[in-house]
Design a protein that fits this description.
Keywords: Methyltransferase, Transferase
Strand order of the largest sheet: 8-7-6-11-9-12-10
Structural class: alpha/beta
CATH class of the largest domain: Alpha Beta
Distance between the termini: 48 Å
GO molecular function: RNA binding; RNA methyltransferase activity
Oligomer: single chain
Order of helices and strands: EHHEHEHEHEEHEHEHEEEHEH
CATH architecture of the largest domain: 3-Layer(aba) Sandwich
Protein name: RNA methyltransferase
Radius of gyration: 21 Å
InterPro entries: Alpha/beta_knot_MTases, MRM3-like_sub_bind, Ribosomal_eL30-like_sf, rRNA_Methyltransferase, SpoU_MeTrfase, SpoU_subst-bd, tRNA_m1G_MTases_N
Organism: Notoacmeibacter marinus
CATH topology of the largest domain: Alpha/beta knot
Number of helices: 10
Bound molecules: S-adenosylmethionine
Strand content: 15-25%
Length: about 280
């Protein structure tokens, strides 16, 4: 990168870039495609607080990008120094470049390029109070992001993506997680691998289905065993193969004309019921 400039008061390895044609900026803009994210093992997340929280949680910031006019904002220089100390790069860019990277008119002043991190499903906890969300072929980035955020808020131990799911590291999903992507372990596996994982799971697999025979409020949620909470695809619901593998098929009773609930809403209801005994307003004032 030949536009590198190191100014007074800035940590080392800060490069100033104003041109959209710069190869580094082009590569970062390319992270809007899943193929490029996978090839680079990288994804984007926006917002100064989010980047700080992610660093605190042990995520690797490969590149920190901030708008030139944010240079003197409280905390930006400290954050840049932290990133450099951990071996990352720092780019000081024009607002035009930042807007092009995030594809927004009013972009956040700080953006991070992070290393993608999938969790090995065998490393997920299996304690008596563990609840993990399992999503069958989730397709909508907003749904997935909202579910990861809700899983975080409900104290779920992780989210397992089964089959052909939307990418949790797309910018739309990352935005919808509101930072919870960094706090909730996310694993992925094929349906076949999940059926074998489910056989080794020490507790119950509770599926949700529009034809489920069990009212979700009547399940003995407080019984001590680790739970997998399985949710179906937005348009097709659960395939028979997965539905048959469940210990319980639960239904959320409905009134009115709607055929079903939105996937993220149904997941939220199930999760907060499953975690009811483990949550108290005293613990999270
Ligand atoms: N047309 C789909 C079907 O026939 O299953 C609707 C799927 S619904 C939008 C997406 C998922 O949310 C379902 O597979 C199920 O996991 C969950 N869900 C939505 N409403 C539900 C309800 N009332 N009871 C149980 N699960 C529900």
């Amino acid at each position: 990168m030949n536009e590198a400039a190191k100014g007074p008061g800035r940590p080392g390895r800060v490069k100033e870039i104003t041109a959209l044609t710069n190869p580094t900026i082009k590569a970062i803009r390319g992270l809007d495609r899943k193929r490029n994210r996978e090839a680079e093992n990288s994804f984007l997340a926006e917002g100064q607080k989010l980047v700080i929280d992610a660093l605190d949680l042990g995520w690797t910031v490969k590149t920190l990008i901030y708008a030139k006019n944010a240079r003197d904002h409280a905390g930006v220089a400290d954050l840049a120094a932290r990133v450099v100390a951990r071996g990352g790069d720092v780019l000081e860019v024009s607002e035009k470049v930042l807007g092009a990277i995030t594809r927004r008119d009013n972009p956040q002043m700080v953006v991070g390029v992070f290393a993608i991190k999938w969790v090995n499903p065998d490393k997920l906890p299996r304690d008596d109070d563990t609840v993990c969300v399992v999503l069958d072929r989730v397709r909508d980035p907003g749904n997935l992001g909202t579910i990861i955020r809700t899983a975080d808020a409900a104290g779920a131990a992780g989210v397992i993506l089964v089959g052909d799911c939307v990418d949790p590291f797309s910018i739309e999903t990352v935005r919808a997680t509101m930072g919870s992507l960094f706090a909730v372990p996310v694993a992925r596996m094929s349906e076949e691998a999940f059926l074998s994982f489910r056989n080794d799971w020490p507790g119950k697999l509770i599926g949700t289905h529009l034809e489920g025979s069990v009212d979700y409020r009547t399940i003995g949620w407080a019984e001590s065993e680790p739970l997998l909470l399985l949710m179906g695809n937005e348009s097709q619901g659960l395939p028979d193969t997965l539905a048959k593998s469940c210990d319980i098929l639960a239904r959320i009773p409905q009134a009115g004309r709607a055929d079903s609930l939105n996937l993220a809403v149904a997941t939220g209801l199930m999760l907060f019921e499953a975690r009811r005994h483990g949550l108290s307003i005293e613990d999270h004032p």
